[in-house]
Amino acid sequence: MINFNGSLRSQATSDLTINNRGYKYGDALFETLKVVNGKIFFWEDHYFRLMSSMRILRMDIPMNFTMEFLESEILKTLEASHLLHASARVRLNVDRGEGGKYLPSGTAQVHFNISAEPYHQPFYTIDAEAKCVVDLYKDYFVAPGLLSGLKSNNKAIQVIGSIYAQENDFDNCLVLNTNKSVIEALNGNLFVVKGDHIKTPPLEDGCLKGVMRKQVLELLAKDVNITVEEASISPFELQKADELFITNVIKGIVPITKYRKKTYGSDFAQGLVNKLNAKLRLLS
Predict the structure, then answer these.
(1) Which of 91, 134, 151 has its CA nearest to residue 116?
(2) Domain tally, the chain
(3) Coil, strand, or helix at residue 7?
(4) DSSP reduced 3-state for 31
(5) Is 188:253 a contact under the CB 8 Å cutoff?
(6) Same-domain pairing of 181 and 232
(7) Backbone angles phi, psi at 12, to 5 degrees
(8) What average pLDDT does range 224-230 have in this prediction?
């Protein structure tokens, strides 16, 4: 079932049309949520990122768009989809409806839709046998700045980068900005481990303002034995690292196993996953 502005519909009776601004102009935002047994992981962080992004895009936020209202609509959708007592991947999409060209018309109003699908893994794990071979994606670059970090429907680089990765037998690719700094993977934020020093690109470089990135930074800040730096990363640093890993809310932490001729371990990443799951148990 799909939730359109609070009304549950089948996909066949969807209210989305070709005039929807999210379809025509990418004038839309979304949040990808992991929900287990009716508990939305890091919901507060998702909600405030969405509100901040809507303000940046100058959307008129409806008065009823409270954290409690949207949470209840998500749970309603899960229940209708028979996923309330299971592990699920949820997409909350917000768009400006219909009307206007580039400039929205005065009748354009913010709409939302919610969809859900089963997800097999309730908590975060690292498969020691899994591989994640990556390379740089250099066909196109991201402009530095906070606008590039919005989770909007404009994901052209992620789409064609994923096609490039598949064509070249990579499991993922690392994205560069116009300054040729490495900013993220195609589907998550990037962390570089070198000894007791951990580094991740700053938001100003154009990387996604990831919810899992925030969780990992908070966990790292509690460890007095390491130093954490948000700073630009050059491609040359990657082969000197002890570990590289990708973060996103659905998979948690994904260690990169190989970049070009360099292979990496995952001990640090595994320790982080354990801490992340411990935090989730406290929040449950």
Answers:
(1) 91
(2) 2
(3) strand
(4) strand
(5) no
(6) yes
(7) -70, -25
(8) 96
For residues 40 and 161, the answer to whether their CB atoms sit within 8 Å is no
- Would you say residue 124 lies in a domain? no
**150 plus 260 within the same structural domain:** yes
CA–CA distance, 74 with 78 (Å, rounded to integer): 6
Q: What is the CATH number of the domain that holds 164?
A: 3.20.10.10
Instruction: Match 């990387």 to its residue by tokens.
Output: 207
pLDDT tens digit sequence for 82-134:
999 999 999 999 999 999 999 999 878 999 999 999 999 888 999 888 999 99
Q: How far apart are CA 47 and CA 142, in angstroms?
A: 25
| Same domain, yes or no: 69 and 198 | no
- Note the pTM of the prediction, 2 decimals: 0.94
Q: Are residues 36 and 97 in the same domain?
A: yes
CB neighbour class for 242 (10 Å; exposed up to 12, middle 13-18, buried from 19):
middle
Which residue in this structure is represented by tokens 């071979």?
133
Residue whose token pair is 């959307």: 59
Cβ-based burial of 230 (10 A; exposed 0-12, middle 13-18, buried ≥19): middle
Evaluate whether residue 165 is within a structural domain: yes
* Residue 85 vs residues 36, 76, 120: alpha-carbon distances, Å: 7, 12, 13
48-90 confidence digits (pLDDT tens):
999 999 999 999 999 999 999 999 999 999 999 999 999 999 9
Full domain range(s) for residue 104: 2-118
pLDDT in tens, 248-263: 999 999 999 999 999 9
| Spatial CA neighbour of 57 closest among 16, 34, 26, 31 | 26
Q: Which residue's entry shows tokens 């700053």?
A: 202
Distance of CA 116 to the CA centre of its chain: 16
Residue 14 lies in a domain: yes
